[in-house]
Design goal:
single chain, alpha/beta, Enolase-like, domain 1, 2 domains, 15 helices, 37% helix
């Protein structure tokens, strides 16, 4: 059986588009690393590890430190052995979820190529049929409302029907409502709007805003209150027509299962990178469906490599019936893949070919390569 010959990590700092902001503040760059796993016959697999300090508190330097600890264990292993390692309780306790997700993705990409099948097929249950495409929402994160309106018009012209609007840029409910109404006014007929304040509203502000936009085509509001305000979220959901989705409150598998058990919201926003595994995320999706809770898979501003893995999972999961948040690549300076993921009329298409179906752009990875100062970890690509 083929074994792993080498694993390289291209550490990167990838600028984001100017003028974009979330409730967590401006994000000038997304940092992380792309793994290139090479088998003893030359077959390669790619995966991505993205730093999400706003969720986990771990910086890219911290993640590279985690990679330095696990790297000596990788060479010489078969892909099934590596997957068993990454899915073990010991790995979950010792290594950051983004690291496990990135290495799992690289392993599945290589495994798909060796077995001449897609990662989507590897993730699909025997009783299910994978889809070839997934409906996606666009993301409007421009801080200036006039720029946000212009972006909404552009996306409408491109055929999107589901729009996600970043909110939480002010604590003034009147200004937030004005932003929502301005975007709603230019949406196409039958389009829906998703609101994402990133935890920034108070209970009173959320109630006022929901009341003021009750007649608008809003699908749901994502994490309106702090992830720690469970009682207030429950109160808000019980007193409003608006469907509430949890995002920051489900940034681990344990939190996701707790939310399912408690029926804490109607929708869960799942980021596989934070959950540490495509397989673990699929299990959460199935558990949520059993509890009549919908799930939306969202990419946390990953490059095309991480986004391709998220797309493969969405297409492998028949329980996913809503548009997913995978179309944010235009908010980044590069997608790190040789051919872009194709989107037409708000539909993202699974790339053809074995594995993830994408080819890493090594020149771009080297262009944005950076140094993260951390103990016991290399810098740039190692």
């Amino acid at each position: 059986m083929r074994t792993i010959a080498s694993v390289s990590a291209y550490a990167y700092s990838l600028p984001t588009a100017a003028g974009n902001q979330t409730g967590h503040g401006a994000m000038p760059a997304r940092e992380g690393a792309v793994f290139i796993l090479e088998m003893d016959n030359g077959t390669q697999g790619a995966g991505e590890m993205v730093a999400l300090p706003e969720f986990t508190g771990l910086s890219a330097a911290d993640l590279m430190g985690h990679f330095a600890k696990i790297k000596p264990l990788l060479c010489g292993q078969t892909l099934p052995e590596l997957l068993d390692l990454l899915h073990s309780a010991n790995a979950a306790a010792a290594y950051a979820p983004q690291l496990r997700f990135g290495l799992e993705t690289a392993a599945l990409d290589a495994l798909g190529k060796l077995e001449n099948c897609s990662v989507c097929e590897l993730l699909t249950s025997s009783e299910q049929i994978p889809r070839a495409a997934q409906r996606v929402n666009c993301v409007i994160a421009d801080a200036a409302t006039d720029m946000a309106v212009a972006k909404a018009k552009r996306y409408a012209a491109e055929g999107y029907t589901v729009f996600k609007l970043k909110m939480g840029l002010t604590q003034n409910a009147e200004k937030e409502l004005a932003r929502i109404h301005a975007i709603s006014a230019v949406l196409p007929k039958n389009a829906t709007l998703r609101l994402d304040p990133n935890e920034q509203w108070s209970l009173a502000a959320a109630q006022e805003i929901f009341s003021g936009c009750a007649a608008l085509p809003i699908e749901y509001c994502e994490q309106p209150l702090s992830r720690y305000a469970n009682a207030n979220i429950a109160e808000l959901q019980s007193t409003t027509h608006m469907a509430i989705a949890l995002d920051e409150a489900v940034c681990s598998a344990e939190q996701a299962y707790e939310a399912i058990a408690n029926q804490a919201a109607r929708i869960l926003i799942l980021k596989p990178a934070l959950l540490g595994s495509l397989f673990a995320t699929k299990q959460i999706i199935q558990a949520a469906a059993g509890a009549h809770i919908r799930c939306v898979i969202t990419s946390p501003y990953e490059s095309g490599i991480g986004s391709a893995a998220d797309l493969a999972l969405a297409c492998a999961s028949s329980e996913i019936i809503d548009a997913c948040g995978l179309a944010a690549l235009d908010l980044l300076a590069d997608d790190f893949i040789c051919a872009p993921l194709r989107i037409a009329e708000g539909i993202m298409f699974l790339p053809a070919g074995a594995g993830l179906g994408v080819i890493p752009d090594i020149a771009s990875l080297e262009r944005y390569s950076t140094v993260f100062q951390c103990s016991n970890a290399g810098a740039g690509y190692v």
